[in-house]
Specification:
The protein has helices spanning 13-25, 47-51, 67-70, 133-146, 158-169, 190-201, 299-313, 384-392, 416-424; strands at 3-9, 31-34, 73-76, 83-85, 90-92, 98-106, 110-112, 127-128, 151-154, 174-178, 205-209, 213-219, 222-228, 233-235, 239-241, 245-247, 263-264, 276-278, 283-286, 293-294, 326-331, 334-340, 350-356, 361-368, 371-378. It is of the alpha/beta class. The longest helix has 15 residues, at 299-313.
Length: 430
């Protein structure tokens, strides 16, 4: 196929949801998906369970094997898009192959970011990232070959802690190094971070905070130890770098498409170039709370923007209202979820919280003008969907504010007019 109606670069959750969005309105147009990865699809949140041998590679899929044929979509794996020619509506693939399109979606996601570390080289054995299924496969193969006594993880964000979980499932002790003063610094407040750190510390984990790696030392082309800024040295055969990701914008580097931190899009997920859309981790899209664009590289945002972009590629005019950070993590038996603004710096916010240390229960709400703008749930997350709806629908919670912190809080505790509003509201699809 040398030309197609709809061309999608990227086959993760944004690309897959874009296919579904297209097919809702166009059952016949040709869809071609090109992906640099060798897999049909997989769920990034599940790769820690694959590493930990809790699930198989097949079980990481989030759409079944018949998905592409059912959707009449063509998929080219192991085919990275090399260049983009917007004026001729074409991309170039390896071996000089060119594909022309009528509508294009850039859903290239993000790439792990590497901080400047003396001695860091991709030629060294024993150094990994933990963002893709390929990363998890490579790390698993290395562990089975080397059988390391310990491991070091640089970064205590969501990726770092999920990598830690996978390693701990294999009974490999981990030392987690974080430059900030707490784990999950972008997701949790101080108390929430302390709860999660203390839980992980019971599972063969050590934490070093307010520090970072400045040098890697090796022997025979294999990592031997890491040197920290504080001067501390840690012997290890296994290092995972998990300090964050950056939007994968290389494909638009020599194009007229506007890039800030990510590819800038409007409420329809359109770029500044006609017939080119962007979605997922690569897109800088409207923010829910503020009148500006933002990068929110998380699975729910990628899914939603992909669906909206795919729909609009068919000529629809569906507006993306923006989302906010929504992070979910489960470390062994301890689940935690956060939504929206969790650690406000202004005194204009009202804080409600409840903590029961013995059961690892923690619940916090951040309110502005009697509306929930953020929350943290640790331990019991059963009502997370309701709280998310209250944020999305901007519901005034004055009438039931005192009940929010109770574990028994549920849909039926909401006033009838609120229940009716939510039932007919857009958010019920989430």
């Amino acid at each position: 196929m040398n030309r197609t109606d709809y061309l999608i670069i990227g086959n993760s959750v944004s690309g897959v949801n874009a296919i579904e969005g297209i097919r809702e309105y166009d059952s016949k147009g040709e869809i071609l998906v090109v992906s640099e990865e060798p897999f049909e699809n997989y769920s990034r949140p599940l790769i820690s369970y694959f590493l930990g041998r809790k699930i198989s590679q097949q079980q990481t899929r989030f759409r079944d094997e018949s998905f592409y044929s059912d959707m009449k979509a063509h998929l080219l794996i192991n085919n990275p898009a090399i260049s983009l020619d917007c004026s001729n509506h074409a991309i170039e693939l390896p071996a000089g192959k060119k594909i022309r399109y009528q509508k294009l979606l850039i859903a290239t996601g993000a790439k792990p970011w590497f901080p400047p570390i003396d001695g860091l080289s991709n030629q060294l054995e024993g150094i990994f990232t933990f963002y893709s299924l390929n990363d998890a496969i490579s790390l698993a193969q290395y562990i089975e070959s080397v059988n390391p006594d310990n491991s070091v993880i640089l970064g205590a964000g969501l990726i770092g802690l999920k990598a830690a979980e996978g390693l701990l499932m294999r009974n490999i002790p981990v030392t987690i190094i974080e430059m900030a003063d707490r784990v999950l610094p972008n997701t949790m407040d101080v108390k929430g971070s302390e709860i999660i750190q203390s839980y992980l510390a019971r599972h063969n984990s050590e934490f070093i905070k307010n520090d970072t790696i400045i040098r890697i030392e090796s022997e025979n082309n294999k990592i031997k130890r890491v040197i920290l800024k504080s001067g501390k040295q840690i012997e290890t055969e296994c290092l995972i770098i998990a300090v964050g990701v950056r939007p994968a914008t290389t494909i638009v580097k020599n194009s007229p498409i506007v890039v800030n931190r990510g590819i800038v899009v409007d409420n329809n997920l359109k770029t500044n170039v006609s017939d080119v859309f962007a979605a997922g981790d690569v897109a800088e899209a409207p923010d829910f709370f503020e009148n500006k664009n933002a990068l929110i590289p998380i699975w729910p945002v990628a899914a939603k923007t992909g669906k909206v972009a795919g729909s609009n590629m068919t000529g629809q005019n569906i507006s993306y209202a923006g989302l906010y950070p929504m992070n979910s993590i489960q470390i062994f038996e301890l689940p935690a979820i956060s939504f929206g603004i969790t650690n406000p710096q202004s005194k204009n916010f009202e804080i409600l919280e409840k903590h029961q240390p013995d059961s690892h229960f923690y619940r916090k709400f951040v309110l502005y003008d009697n509306r929930i703008v953020g929350c943290i749930l640790i331990g019991n997350i059963n009502r997370a969907g309701i709280y998310n709806l209250l944020i999305r629908e901007k519901i005034v919670v004055t009438a039931f504010k005192k009940d929010l912190l109770e574990e028994s809080f549920g849909f039926l505790m909401l006033p009838r007019e609120v229940r009716k509003h939510i039932v007919v509201g857009e958010s019920m699809e989430v």
